[in-house]
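ESCALATION

Customer reports they have been waiting on this structure for their group meeting. Please prioritize. Original submission:
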Amino acid sequence: MSTIRSRGNKDTELALVQVLRRHRIAGWRRHQQMPGKPDFIFRKLRLAIFVDGCFWHGCPKHSGHVAKSGAYWRKKLTVNQLRDRMVTRTLRRTGWRVLRIWEHDLAAKRNPRLLQRIVRALGQ
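Update from on-call: job pushed to the front of the queue and completed.
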């Protein structure tokens, strides 16, 4: 577990950058100072996008991948999930829409479904 980085998800963010650019979706910004530090924002549309890593955010599809020292990691992931819900609630209360994308959604075979979710969120 020591090889798992505790900060940043650069690879997943760059994968979403490729999807956005490939489909000519413009108007997004990264690394903006906002509650929860969204990975991408569309300021004019008040849309915040988070790319959540399956391990660090407790993806239900991959929830069986907890280390042998399970109690520590279950607690850690539970705290991360509670924080994610609080950030989402905070942003929504201030008029932002929030789209959370799982790391596994960035796989090439899932791109059409992911693209639909993004386009739908941008159109609302």
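Sent to customer with the following note: The chain has three helices and three strands.
Escalation resolved.
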